[in-house]
Amino acid sequence: MLTEDHLPSDKDAILGAPTDESGSILATVNQYPSSTGDEGWHGALVEEPTAFRADILQFTDLHTLLWDADLEQTLDVRNDAVDSDVDYASSRVPEVRMQNRFEFADDSTAELDQHVLVSAERPALLVQSDVAFGNANTHTAYTVLNSAIHSTEADAGGEEAYLTTSEGYDCIVAHDEGCGLYFALAQSRPETDQTEFDGQRVGHVDTQEGPDKSAWTDIYEENDGYIDANDGNEGHVDVGVGLFLDDDESATWLTAVGFGESEEDALDAATTALDNGYDEEREAFTDAWESWHESTDGSPVDDDTVTGMYERSLTSMKCAQDPRGPMIAGAFEPNDQGYRYVWPRDQVILIQAALAAGAVDEARAALDWLDDAQITDDVADERDIPRTGTWWQNYRTDGESHWTELQLDQVGGPIYAHWLLWQKTEDDDVVDAYYEMSEQAAEFLLDYDNGEGFPGKHQDPWEEVWGYSTEGVAAAIAGLRSMAALADEQGDDEFADDCREQAETWADNFDDYCFHEDAYLGDHYVTADSPERDDNVSPNERPDAATFMAYWPWNVADADSDEMQSTVAAGDDEAWSAEGARCLARYPEDNYTPSGSPEAGGWPLCEAYGDVVRWQSEHDADAVEDYVFTDAPEWTTAAGLLPEQVDGEGDVRWNSNLQWSQAMYILLAESYAADEPVGFAPDE
Length: 684
Prior knowledge:
This protein is α+β, with helices and mostly antiparallel strands.
């Protein structure tokens, strides 16, 4: 059943365009079975496109279904394909190519090849479908999608969708009054010049009978080859349209979805894309992406595998960047929260990676967004902590706050990003442009001392523990040191001295709080001292991959110190690492997994931080080389993107196209080429 209850998270590909005209359009492609189950599904389809607000889905899944009239059988790409493939046109051009293979009841087959792109010149998603049947029966192709133009599930039901015509095309327009957003669905069959639907239905999601029955029920579940046509409906709607193929053994058609903030704009985007045709749109899309990649520095390693991974990672980050400047954490929904939000902490790492790759404009746009999003009002949070100068935990792309806990890496980090942009550009105007932002953040940190020479309590980077987190403290120290360098440049010597003195005091006490002897795996840094919650293993006892960030990029702990060496040695214990592939988990007994229970496996981004420490301390001199050339390329989705988590054998487990993971590949490739970690914060 096509339902809103199904929230797959394992997205294999992400696509968008690098242009202002359509930079707000983002879509994903998922190949099943997903990491969260659905072992009976083996197809691939477009899922969860967004437009204008990356946290608001325009619709959920774009299904293609094939009806065989002689066999009286309807097959859907997701539910019924026996096999599928997903890949990119190239590592620089995220045109997604899907292939679904079907077997009908008489053992005849059908192959459906679909190419998907976002128009470079208008807000439209365009799909070219090519089908080849193994028999000469009569067939009809259907397109079904769920409208989803709402911020939360509680808002569902305010939509309407209706049939209209525009520029000679039949179109279904969907709209939600609360969001002011529209999309328009249209299709054409170039070989016959057909631009009309062979039937259309607008129904209510999950309604199985009556006048409001869903398009999915009408087309797939009733399985009679006919659409009970209507011209529109209101509520939580789904949409289905038909294309009669007769007994043709092969056929090609185009499906366009145009987006807009008015009906006229959405219709114009869809119909213009169809008028141009797929070849013309693909040429513009390819030119736009090739031109954008030429504006960056390119892969620093002369190796086909590394270059492909590097370019795909950078392409993915650009796809995830909203025209307002920020990059969302990931285009997927593992649960109701979703990752389609902006975490200031993630922005900092993405800025670090963008600068390393020479994508200076993208880094500066993200920093501009951080500048705009900073809390400047006299406001306190739920813990009565004054938050002026900080950032909320995460945001919608339009700057509206979402979660609100205090994380010190999301205060010190933006100062570091400001300093890093200045170091990259050597432009003193950069110091001036963001000085007030960094100064206010540093003033908060100077005031946020616990009275004993250490930062006050805060939430750890994994957003689970309130205490003295190792990584958060290191980020705060790095932020103050970065501010001192910026203040020196501005001639503000007194403020620079205050920042350095506070940073030095906190650094002197760092090991007293953060390094614990006789802990879970021996002597090592821990998630957080004095935590307010317990877990499978106490945050006060367990090693944590985020602690390696105290070495890089925060430059607070030395890689070859006894404390860091005993921590990285604990990473060799299978309690903390994947069984079949060396990949560190966040910490031992981590239950943030699809099953909700601890699983064998790890996080590629965590392994990346651990490998930098191994490499620089000569605990394993080949660790970063192995990560860049061998390990990371084996941990990717069908389309070659790094996920959040892999299982014990190194296969994708959860939350693909996590942008932090992509950023880490870029940073480790750049570090390998430079023969030293890139992007260290100041050491004093």
